[in-house]
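Now for today's protein:

——
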Amino acid sequence: MKERILVTSQYEQAGVNIEAGEQAVDNIKTIVAATQDTNVLNGIGGFGAEYELTALMGQYHEPVLVSGTDGVGTKLLLAIQAQQHATIGIDLVAMCANDILAQGAKPLFFLDYLGLGQLESDQVTTVVSGIAEGCKQAGLSLIGGEMAEMPGIYHDGDYDLSGFAVGIADKQNLLGSHHVAAGDVLIGLASSGVHSNGFSLVRKIISDAKLDVDHQYEGLSDSLMQTLLTPTILYDKAVRPLIDAGLIHAAANITGGGIIENLARMMPTALTAEVDETTWSTPTIFKLLQRAGHVSQSEMRTVFNMGIGMVLIVSADKAQVVLDKLHQTTVKAQSIGKVVTRHDQPVEYVAH
């Protein structure tokens, strides 16, 4: 009997497994296709993804494409540590989709980038399944992406994610600070927790305070790790009907920088957003992190969303209508403040 000789390519010896990459692509084809609408012209495999706009053009007088790109930051390190990759893709889509939603865009398509130290087809399938789920929640067609196996850049087991979302809006219907007026009401949409920002500080607090990520601390509904890995909320289904009805002046996606920095983007120079923090209950996870890390309230406000994932700015006479419609969705919402003539800062916390 002849001895079987295993032959490996120089590329595989260098750490790149082409066969695993091909298997991963085969695994995700059906998953990706399930997200796509009739405007997608081809599937995975082309040099570029194609999305037809013909059917959309009649709906817009002055069509504007709105794009956004983002990642999930060091939340990935917790997902890798926990070996839980199923929902990090939802975070990725949310970081991009919520940004273009805040400008009033109807979501069209999404592309992703996945860089890895070692490609494992099952892990890739799990990650991409999460991205596909996020796209379904946001109404985006996942039309393409890139998987790059880069030993030496990433350690085995490590990976990084980036996403790119494109939407469309009529120029006259774009949301923004130019619509905001004194007397407008701030409506806060609840977050699901930390979402995908501030995790470098989260990880420092865990390390410095020696927190047990597998422990369920008082007030949490799950372990610390599971609480932190709760995926970011996608707000499109709740907010899109309000935008289409012309009920929203502006919106702020509350990501890095918290309410202060992100809401400031939507304030004209002559106006200030007064935020009343007593109008909502700060989730326990933020209280735990603040207490364990000895973090000041001002720093907490500038790093974390503190329980508010998006702020809508609406006219006072439409505020109750907006709240009533939001209360019919799965997203919790409440009035958290108002717009007034300019004080010292574009966003200020007040107590009433």
